[in-house]
């Protein structure tokens, strides 16, 4: 191991300073919310929150931000209202709990939060109720739950030449190269919060399927195309989307998305690019410059891929997306129209018809070339 | 080929009831014991009611041999402090079927005093023991009878009759009968309990065969005003009834014998003086208004015959031919039949017409029925197509049928007179409900009188909620003429109305602790069966029940929503007490403070303002 240079040491200092700052900001924000409630109680008033409304009517597509955002409607949740008192208290508890997690640099999962509540006489009927309160907290603070050290359970994975430095307690300063393990690294809290130190990669390839991810590692796509490969495992979890955004912004890497050739695949790419309605209250999850390179509906015809017929729900989904403002032009609209015309779909694995390496040797290079012009 | 000759026998009423005793509720030992209790207790209460005596009723059931298993003989005794029965009537009242004092048209618990005799009859045929009746009318002497019924002859057999000195008025009846107390006990206790609820002015005690004593002292000191006997309403009448009324309104021509003449003399105040014809007629004219009908008829006859008493003694009236205005008589002196012409203009002619042909239709209507005045009578006569002066005694069978039909169809009669009814009244009913159920809420209503088929009726109802009432309601207590109805609940009109009610609309939900008391008073309760346990769904009665229940339900709903608000306020207060301290704890740590904020103020304020409903639930701010 070579000694770190001064420049590198400073860089590390900068990084930990940045992480401390972020933590401090979160704690300050929680404190100011807490102080307001404290003062209300002290003054003999029922405290209340203003929560941005997350109802469908308040979710609008912002063309400048290129993502869905919440509109201006907000609702008051008051501790005076007996039907809101319980959820008010739940939200307060969650802020309190998030405060402790952040202070102590401990991470938790959605399920963990649900069970932790029981230590404080806070009752949640089920996990979906506590999950919902977590989204409330996100909406109030405009911060993703990961900032409060609450992570989802579902994991996707990453592989490629990327050096990271852990910031989680006990691992501070430790570094890791993400090409060290051929199965890839699971994108959990420690990875999402890690500092991205450096990389030789020039592009990020997000791929929908675990099987293809393994094939890509085997075929050394990381080296052949100087890329970082990410398995989204279907719809990308929020931590994965956060990491994609950071790779794009902090390491200036373009992101391309490779999905199955169906309407759901198209939408997986769109969510990475411009977010989902469910997370419209957050603005740190999208990669507006991400590019969907396939499998397109037109590819099905072009490459004569084996297909399967679309189900009724596939077709319904097509019609639904046609109403979405993001699908009004470009390839998004065009491919949707073709899907509807074909009424058939194809999976990434369909390329195996032409041999196992066909997809990496033929399709991918063509698509990467194409992506430059997109 | 043989001819079988049908045998026709006439059977006596007691013979008939002996063979059909299940008609009156004596079908088995369980039912019979219960029915016997009912009949005697109701007779005791009726007797006291009618004389305005606050009833003290004592019911005793004792097993003859407690070791034996049911069914077995029991001695059933009911004592009261009522007016008693004259010793001369006792054998007939208790030893004859269909003998009684309750045949008038007014509300009473029983109708014909039939049930008590049936109980005695049932006791006799199951145990072969006589009934013991002790009665004191004056409070000094008591007559004690032991009686058996001669079933075939429907006649009492006096086994024993003694008298002794006593200090209290009243009647005591004691019979021995086969019964099943282990099965009937529940019903009998329920009966006693429910009877005392609807008879709050009575003290009822019950000594049961197991040695338990159930005591229900009176808690209301006033007896509701007794009902009066009234004339029938035209809508409740049939041809047979009209025929009987006509007979009552017609009179036979008196037999002019010595006794009759003696009576006329006496009524005119003639003593033994022999006056001339003119002198007698003068005297009669002066005293006309005070004279009895019989005497008036004799005077009228004399006026047409132009005879004094001397001559009158020697004739016999044969016929009065009103249409031909002729009077026929037999003259014993001349031994021949004679006739005289009558002057229709004479006032005596009218007297005779009345006697022979009955009253004119209009008079008949106004005098024999309730609430018909001369105007209505005339209108009715026109409606029915009769001449107003048509004599009742001259009506043919067909005319009577027409009359009866028209009486049913004519709509302009006033509603029946409810003075024959004796509702308990709202005050005593509410007191009873309060005492028996100690509820959180109670309401009662007495509906105005109404009528079905000419029989007046009044609905009284009560509703109570909460307190000592068991959950799982509504529990319905049904009464008819102060009798609790305990059997055959399912098909009763009251139950129908209660079940038709959507209680959710009145904010009554789940398994409510909730009772309904329904009392139907009528001169005739339209029971569905002879067992007298469930009331048929006559539309008029159903409507009144529904209106009564709706009125009470609205009151209940008002109470429930108040109660709901109070509950809600309490619930809210509890919620605040639970959650505000938690919020304070979390806020303290979030704000980085050491001391918790003083949140007690808002909890106290909230208690004061809990009635104000501040709704910020859906407040939406457009920023």
Structural class of chain A: alpha/beta
Strand order, largest beta sheet of chain A? 10-7-13-12-14-15
Structure summary, number of beta strands of chain B: 18
Strand order of the largest sheet of chain B: 5-4-3-6-2-1-7-8
Mean pLDDT across every amino acid position of chain A: 88
Determine the strand fraction of chain B and express it as a percent band.
Answer: 15-25%
- Whole-angstrom Rg of chain B: 35 Å
Biggest pleated sheet of chain B? 8 strands, mixed
What report would you give on this structure?
The complex is a heterodimer of chains A (374) and B (623). Chain A has 374 residues and is of the alpha/beta class. Chain A has helices at residues 6-42, 82-104, 110-116, 127-141, 189-192, 210-218, 221-224, 238-250, 263-274, 297-302, 312-322, 330-342, 358-373; strands at residues 48-52, 59-62, 67-70, 73-78, 108-109, 150-151, 157-159, 162-165, 175-177, 185-186, 195-199, 203-207, 227-231, 255-258, 291-294, 308-309, 344-345. In chain A, strands 10-7-13-12-14-15 form a six-stranded mixed β-sheet, with helices on both faces. A three-stranded antiparallel β-sheet of chain A has the order 9-8-11, with helices on one face. In chain A, helix 9 links the parallel strand 14 (255-258) and strand 15 (291-294). The relative contact order of chain A is 0.10. The mean pLDDT of chain A is 88. Chain B is an alpha+beta fold and 623 residues long. Chain B contains 18 helices and 18 strands. Chain B has helices at 13-19, 29-51, 90-95, 114-127, 181-198, 239-249, 258-268, 277-287, 293-305, 309-312, 347-357, 361-368, 374-384, 397-409, 426-437, 493-500, 539-591, 600-609; strands spanning 56-63, 72-79, 131-136, 141-150, 155-165, 170-179, 203-207, 213-216, 315-321, 326-331, 336-341, 441-446, 450-452, 455-465, 475-480, 483-485, 514-522, 620-622. Chain A binds chain B through residues 30-31, 33-35, 37-39, 41-42, 44-48, 50, 53, 72-76, 78-86, 88-89, 92-93, 95-96, 99-100, 120-122, and chain B through 571-572, 575-576, 579-580, 582-593, 597-599, 601-602, 605, 614-623.
